[in-house]
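Sequence in, structure out.
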Amino acid sequence: PRIHYGEAYNRKGEFWKFMEWHSYPGKAEDGFLDIRTSAGAIIDFQRNHATVSLIDSASWKTNPPGVKESDISLQTLQAAGR
């Protein structure tokens, strides 16, 4: 497992947000090795608010057989969103 941390500061230079992401190495069906993020949190200390995400990364597919580059082109994705 890998844990990445980040900080953000506002324009005045004051501490604003803390971020963390939990990732692990995954292996695609074609053998490609990737990094999969399984959880994350962003805490806004100035607004006293947080967002947490838990991702079902076990269901992710990387480079699945039969998917072509044209299946995920910008034009295809834009058309699907309309």
